[in-house]
Specification:
The strands form two sheets. Strands 1, 10, 11, 12, 13, 14, 15, 16 and 17 form a nine-stranded mixed β-sheet that branches. The chain has helices at about 25-35, 55-65, 75-85, 100-110, 120-135, 155-170, 190-210, 230, 285, 335-340, and strands at about 20-25, 45-50, 65-70, 90, 115-120, 140-145, 170-180, 220, 240, 260-275, 275-280, 295, 300-305, 310-315, 325-330, 345-350, 350-360. Helix content is about 30%, strand content about 25%.
């Protein structure tokens, strides 16, 4: 949804709305937390680009250090964007199962180091067949289901069996295991550590069993934003697939060391009464995954009441009250969906447009 591109130096108050902003100071802050956390650790960051969808921003995080030198992408099409943008180490932490997409995967492997998650024997055999035909090597990690009850092997025995088959197949390089978890509610640090250790231990148990069978495990990719600090201290975990930390979203408010960097800027367009105001930011520019409404950023006592396609209803109990023409910012319930609706980030520093960044990874659904 790119209809205009502001000039550098434009004041925030002069921007057309709605628009997608990045607070560049907040982004820098979040990037530095990650680079500082992993600067001197065996475990490193592998940023998940489902959130930022921009090779430029991915390179910024890699440049700061503390990373594996590569990224995660949710889809092959997102991997293509990152490789075109000069990133040569990609993990796709999902299963690629159809022949046409595996062929695309093998094509990418001629240009970059590609690793993909597996959780069934037929899939890894097909990857092997196509990779051998195309004369490439595809890295694989066994996905271990630790909690979420979606993809991934369910037992250690299954993990070992799959690792043995992958290790013996031509065109395949067995690299290790991976897992992904999600917390309940908004846990404090102690709860995060207890839950995270319990979930990730399942993947480490699979690693140990695979090594006991005589197979080397190079990678344990086990983490995300909510376990980023925990994983840095768990022996055996080699990388963390953090993504949300970069731009943040309000369900992650409990991670208060990070700052809200990605927001939608809107304008009040109507004021039916003293406590109800209408803005120009609807779900077309935000999304509302699972019915999670956005929240008004940095304006106390203003709450979102309703989200329509092109408008938002705000319940305004603030001291001075919002008026027609006033600006407001919204933090989404999930950045991934929101960013996917835009063609550009408008980077803001000190109230002025510092940069306008294309989002080439948006709309990559296959």
């Amino acid at each position: 949804m790119e209809h205009y591109r502001p000039e550098l130096g434009t004041p925030v108050g002069n921007l057309e709305t709605p628009c997608l902003l990045i607070d560049m100071d907040a982004l820098d802050h979040n990037f530095h937390i990650m680079s500082d956390t992993y600067k001197d650790t065996a475990c490193k960051l592998r940023a998940h680009t489902k959130n930022i969808k921009s090779p430029f921003l991915a390179h910024e995080q890699i440049r700061l250090g503390g990373t594996v030198g590569g990224v995660c992408t949710a889809k092959i099409s997102e991997a293509e964007v990152m490789i075109d943008g000069g990133i040569k180490d990609i993990l796709i932490p999902n299963q690629i199962v159809t022949a046409d997409k595996i062929s695309r995967l093998c094509g990418l492997a001629k240009r970059a180091d590609l690793t993909v998650a597996i959780d069934n024997i037929e899939n890894v055999r097909l990857i092997s067949e196509i990779a051998e035909i195309q004369e490439v090597k595809i890295g694989v990690v066994v996905e271990v289901d630790t909690q979420m009850q979606r993809a991934g092997v369910r037992t250690t025995t299954q993990a070992v069996e799959l690792a043995k088959i992958a290790n013996d197949l031509p065109g395949i390089t067995f690299k290790g295991v991976m897992c992904h978890q999600t917390p309940e509610g908004m846990p404090d640090r102690e709860t995060r550590y207890i839950q995270g250790r319990e979930f990730i231990q399942t993947a480490l148990d699979a690693k140990q069993a695979i090594e006991d069978s005589g197979i080397t495990v190079e990678i344990v990719s086990a983490g995300e934003t909510w376990t980023y600090d925990l994983c840095a201290d768990i022996p055996g975990v080699t990388e963390v697939e953090g993504g949300t930390y970069a731009l943040m979203s309000h369900p992650y408010n409990y991670m208060d060391e990070f700052q809200m960097a990605g927001v939608i800027l809107g304008t009040i367009i109507s004021k039916p009464d003293n406590q109800i105001v209408i803005g120009d930011t609807g779900y077309k520019c935000l999304g509302s995954p699972g019915g999670i409404l956005p929240k008004v950023h940095d304006v106390p006592n203003v709450e979102v009441s309703e989200l329509g396609p092109d408008h938002i209803v705000l319940h305004d109990m603030s001291e001075n009250g919002l008026n027609i023409g006033d600006r407001y910012s919204l933090v989404p319930g999930q950045q991934d969906i929101m960013v996917n609706r835009w063609d550009q980030f408008i980077g803001i520093r000190n109230g002025l447009v510092e940069c306008v960044l294309d989002i080439p990874g948006r709309g990559c659904h296959n």
